[in-house]
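Pair request: fold both.
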Amino acid sequence: MTNHIQSAIQVAGVRIRQDLEGRFRINDLHKAAGGEKRHSPNYWLENQQASELVSLLETTGIPVVSLPGRSGGTYVAKELVYAYAMWVSAEFHLHVIRTFDDLVTGRIAESEARQARQRARLEAPAMTDAIKYTRTSAGKQLAAYHFSNEFDLINRIALGQPAKSFRSLHGIAQDAPLRDFLTPCQIKCVEHLQRTNAALIEVGMSFEDRKAQLSRIYVQRHSRPLLAEVARMEF
């Protein structure tokens, strides 16, 4: 029976396994730290500071568990992960902190992206309604390309290319929702530009003026986060 779960955390190229309660395998952390005998988790757990920290954590849960078998080892609470890393070295401690912070940030970013996708879906009708209203109230004809042009405008600015090209480049099926394949920063950009465009349409701004305004917003608000996101993904 499997007594651990896959973890998204890697420290120095070593995947840190977790048990079913979310504790982290300190043996993996030892390996990530270089695997030196003097940094053995057993030595650390025997020192006074570690013992006191374990005692404090025991008031609210089970901070240390030893599991048998091939995938066994010693699994510890996150607080003990930090404490062990600090015991190894200041450099390793900082590396572990930043790794765990990146994981939390990534989860928050993905949660925000899911919310942005939902807003983008809900607000898409607002943009199409704005197009309908402004054209019909001005006595102008309404055609399908009036809608596709607006969504194409958003995609060209936010993604740097039309949806068709983006799908082809990333192997996305024609019937698959494009928004579901965007990164957190991309979907936030699309959602923001889409919402802004609807408001600009309603006040009667021309297509070219809206294009210029949305491009400025992209540069001011979204270009840096998108570039940083690409750099993180490539790293």
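--- second member of the pair ---
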Amino acid sequence: MIQNLINYFKKLIPIDLDSMVLESSEDETNVYQKYGVAAAAGTAVALFSLFLMAFLIATGEVQLDEIKTRKIVDIVMPQRDPELLDSVERPEEAEPEPDQTPPEVDIENIDNVLDDALNLNFKFKAKRQGVFADGSYVPIFQVPPQYPRRAMERGIEGCVLLEYTVTIAGAVSNPTVIKAIPPNLFDRAATRAALRYKYKPLIRDGVAVPVEGVRQRITFVLESAEKGPGYIPANCVGQM
């Protein structure tokens, strides 16, 4: 019956079924052959890759040289206790050089000095409780003034008349310029010198008392072989 159906369809459709069956079987065989060749080639390539990777790993190992290390020693500074200086020596101060031509000072007391000014009275009276005897004030230390540089460079000489108070300690206070020749040239130097004077204070009834209105002339003279100790500048003669 099946054969009859086949023959019937062959008549309706002019197709050679036998040839188609044969061709399809041949195509399947070719496909199988192609897949087999591809599978074999892929397997070969995979195996070759595995062997190649194993070879590279086996022959590509690199032995690293041993790295030499050096240890750096830590340097630690020893701790020191701070040293305390008990005393510091101060450098000696250089003394100022004196002027090449120190002035000659002629100091004269304008006030009338008592006759016993230079004769110190060391006699004590029984009724006096103090240790000082009565006596006039006496200069015991007088400093020569510093010659002004401007006057020295110009060769100017002169004099200054001062008035001041001798205190109970024998010091000089409130020096005032009464007259100066030439004016305003030697005033400051004379005043500074007078402030350094020291006196034996005036004693009355065993007690030191201040003396006001003491006048003193200070003369400024340039050094010269022709000028004696009592030399007075010409511009000061008869002026004070």
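Observation on the second member. Strands lie at 108-109, 138-141, 158-166, 172-181, 198-200, 202-204, 207-209, 211-220.
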